[in-house]
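Page 42, continued from yesterday. The earlier attempt failed because a stray header line got pasted into the input along with the sequence. Redoing it now with the clean sequence only.
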Amino acid sequence: MVWLEIKKFTIVLIGAILNAIAMNLFLIPANIYSSGFTGIAQLLSKILTDNTPISISTGVLLFLLNVPVTILAWKKVGKSFTFYSFISVFLMSLFLEIIPVIHLSKDILLNAVFGGVIAAVGVGLTLKWGASTGGLDIIAMILSRMKDKPVGIYFFIFNSIIILTAGIMFGWEKALYTLVTLYASTRVIDTIHTQHEKLTALIITKKPDELKKAIHSKLVRGITMVPAKGAFSNETRDLLMIVITRYELYDLERILKEVDPNAFTNIVQTAGIFGFFRRD
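This time it went through. Structure tokens are written below.
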């Protein structure tokens, strides 16, 4: 248990370092904007620096923006996910302050691609281990649960605002290169983690009540229980069906290992759902 937490912290640490490297060595020197709260922090930092006597770094702004979101997530999303997401944000903000801003290449396209790919590796690893890089990830998850709409819609809306703002204020060339960064990031994250925002888990177990209780203690999701029988063994078991987001996959895997490591689980890609996607 302790070793697992150490591994998770280490992955979150590596992800934060990679994100900070992508920002300070590629995106910030080229004036290319990242997605989510990181991009918002970049925009605010540049606006303040260029138009006011106040100068606040991207790292500090990123941390300040995430404080209220973290408080909201603690109540709405889950304590473990929120805790490690906050650790991820704190470490990234710290490394943004420690790692110097260096202009490695004058080629803006190279900066856009490499910055997007390196950041995506950090984000993908963080997501795979049951945390996030905070900010937009958390807001999108909360809104998705409230409105029963896909997380991707909210990512698209918020990132579109960032791109449009960057284009209006600093030129459309930078906004277009920001799109290149977002595309590269999305492709890499999908490869490392999973491209499907919703997944269906079909769990065949001899411990249905224990699993149901453990899942409900961690995830705000409904579970359908169906009696099942093994065709070869003729043993009676239960089939648990639960639809989750990709962010919750790590927690579900951990629950299965702790409660019933012998359970047979099939994770199916979910193209769409109808009806309520939550447990009230």
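Notes: The radius of gyration is 21 Å.
Reminder to self: strip header lines before submitting.
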